[in-house]
Each structure stands twice: as structure tokens, then as C-alpha cells.
Amino acid sequence: MQLIKKVFFIDFDGTITQRDTCAAMVEAFADEGWQQINELWERREISTEECANKTFQLFHATMDDLSQLLDAIKIDENFGDFLNFCNKNGYPVYILSDGYDFCIEYILKKHGFKIPYYANHLEYEKGFRISCTYYNQDCGLCGTCKRFLLERLTQPGSQVVYVGDGISDICPASHSDLVFAKGRLLDYCRAEGIFAIPVAGFAGVLEKLD
Ligand SMILES: [Mg+2]
Ligand SMILES: [Zn+2]
């Protein structure tokens, strides 16, 4: 019997990290008014790019402030074990994020992890700004359209496994073969009748995979 090869797609904020770095940035750096912008985004009325760039206009912070903030972000304690498990079995792992490349790079580097990731590009010049390299015109909302990337990166015949926790994970999760979910993604899967295994973190993912 030939084993079906798994491929893992992992959300970053709130899934690999314990706290969502985008939310942490907003709470630390933004003036009042970001809540209304965020609500529009949650209702899918504005795109990620529009939401982020509008929110950044309310920011008072520099790249150094951001680095300091990121130093305080903790990751899931079992994420390293999960990566070892995938390496041992030859399963590819990709990070798909509608957050910011700078934050992902910073945190992965700090922990010595080398994982391919796809995210929005964050830059700083008299203020923060993002640009969206993996925008998909057919979608029109995500900065980094996870479903589009998931389809592009999957080899035919592999089993697609998704791990996530939020709104931007709904679309790719509904196009995966197996979903591990927590938070709002789990609520959504339950409401929509999408099969998802509830987990609190990567310890739960590893336990279920064994
Ligand atoms: Mg998330
Ligand atoms: Zn999309």
C-alpha cells in the first residue's frame, strides 16, 4: 500500500504564535478608530490591503517599536516538535498568512526555523505600509489569498492538511482534506458543517496525527 503524502498549510498569527501579531500591533500602536476599520474587514466589506493601510494611518510607531513588540510574542510550545515530525516524514510545511512578512521573518529567525512563508509585504517609510504580492483578483479581498496559494503549492495526489484559527482561514480550510481548527475557524466549521478536528495547539495536532 502506498502512503498518501501529506502537505501542511499553517496559519501564522494565533496559530504558530500564541498572540496575533497584527492585533498586538493595533492594540499597542493605533489611535482610536481602528475598531471601525476592523469591523468593515470582518464583514468582508474592505480588503486586507485597504484595512491595513487605513489602520496604519492611525499608528504612532517605528520599526524599532515593532521589533520590541515582536520580542514579547511567544510561539506555541509544541511547534518545534511538529516541524520535526514533518521533517522526519518528509511532509512539506508552508505558512500562509494574511499578516506581515516582517513579523513572520523576525519570529521564525529568532527561533531558528526555516519554513517557506507567504504573506503581505510590510515596509516602513514615514509610516507603515503593506503591499500584497499574493493578491488574487478573483477573490478581491484577501491580501494574501490562501486558497489560491494552497492550490498552487499542492502536488497532485497529496492530502492537504490545514491548521488555523481565524477568519482568513475559512476559505482555504473549505478546500482542504483535513482541518485542525481553533477559535473562529472552529466556530465557522461547526456552523457550516465542515469537518474539523478541534485542537488547542500543535500538541493536539501531533496527538491526532500519530
Ligand atoms: Mg490566525
Ligand atoms: Zn482570497
Notes on the structure:
The chain has 210 residues and is of the alpha/beta class. It has helices at 21-29, 34-42, 48-56, 63-71, 79-89, 101-111, 146-153, 170-173, 183-192, 202-209, and strands at residues 6-10, 93-100, 117-124, 128-131, 159-164, 178-181, 197-198. The chain has a single domain (6-209), classed as HAD superfamily/HAD-like (Rossmann fold, 3-Layer(aba) Sandwich). Strands 4-3-2-1-5-6-7 form a 7-stranded mixed beta sheet. α2 (34-42) packs antiparallel against α3 and α5 runs parallel beside α10 (202-209). The longest helix has 11 residues, at 79-89. It is globular, with a radius of gyration of 17 Å. It binds magnesium ion and zinc ion.
Instruction: Please tell me the overall pLDDT.
Output: 95
- What would you say the CATH architecture is? 3-Layer(aba) Sandwich
Main beta sheet? 7 strands, mixed
**How many domain units?**
1
What's the Cα radius of gyration? 17 Å
H/E element sequence: EHHHHHEHEEHEHEHEH
Put simply, the count of helices is 10
- What is the H level of CATH, i.e. the homologous superfamily? HAD superfamily/HAD-like
| Bulk shape | globular
